[in-house]
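quick one before i forget lol
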Amino acid sequence: MYSKSKCSNWAAFDPYYGEIAQIRNDQEPTAEIVLSNEVSIKVLERPLHEAFLRPYTIRDIEETLASVPLKFLVGLSRIVLLGGTKKQQQNLIRGCFCFGRYHSNAMVSLNAFPRKMMRFSGQIRSHKLQEYLRAGAAYRQEKNCTVVEFNEQSLKTFYLRDVLIHEIGHHVDWLRRHRWSEVTEEFANWFAGEYGYRCQ
């Protein structure tokens, strides 16, 4: 019905939001992480598609959250562990991948990781490369591109200490401003560096 750009209602096609849209607000959580009387976060784990992997467990998430000052987690309602879809896999052809997102309803979603991306290459910005390297990924230069290679441990570290904490940074920023701003991404990047690795 639509062109290859998959646009409708003037919004670009987004397969990650497509998976999020399938989740009901009243859906029973897989687990609940209780960190204090004020901080209780529901976790919903979606079935994992065979083309994707999830390098961490709910227990890993709980341990990571426990290392973050509680004041930053107040109001965070839910963490959704997405399982990946065929459309997300097809979207990789366009070089598009998103590790996670913060949603303004105080929810964090972590996307399942495509198995075929354990090794990927391209024109990678230096700040993104640094994020991969501090998690333990390996890299090398080949002609005009950078090749990045994760193993299971470095990918797990990246998701827990970088992606998850980055999205919590968005939560903290949203509670302060109640709007997105030009410094939102900059703040979340700083937050991941400050509280992702220094709080281990």
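fyi The two ends are 49 Å apart (CA to CA).
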